[in-house]
Amino acid sequence: MIAAKKYVIAEDNLVLIPAKKMSDYLRGKRVLLAGANEVDEMLLRYMVVDGGGTLNIATTTEALEKALHKNRYDLIFMNSRLGSDNAMTILKRLRGEGILNSPVIGISSTELAGRGIYHGFSHVLGRPLEKKIIIEALSEIFESE
Hints:
The chain is an alpha/beta fold. 39% of the residues lie in helices and 27% in strands. The strands form three sheets. The protein has a five-stranded parallel sheet with strand order 5-4-6-9-10. The chain has a three-stranded antiparallel sheet with strand order 1-2-3, with no helix packed on it.
């Protein structure tokens, strides 16, 4: 792949793809991080805040529900487990009750993409989290609006 000013040129297809940064998607956005481990929290806190967004943290299912009742979020990152609770079950319930309408990116150590999408995740990212993959997910979410 060859980098060009503000674009990435894919050699195999010779297509110009805009080279986006985290701030292109997160500037001014309110983001909620639910149930993440310390490493994911540290990484996403840096990416969101450095990208110009505001990050709130919910460590439990109860804290997640309280945050959703209190604020509107543009994006939610959610661990596949919130304590002993299964995030897919929680997400399906919250979407069904109309409490949650924001895009949700799941974070998992196991392959949950198919089941996660079925249960309401917009995307499911595997660990370790990679900036490039997060930007691709953000691009699909925010450029399709």
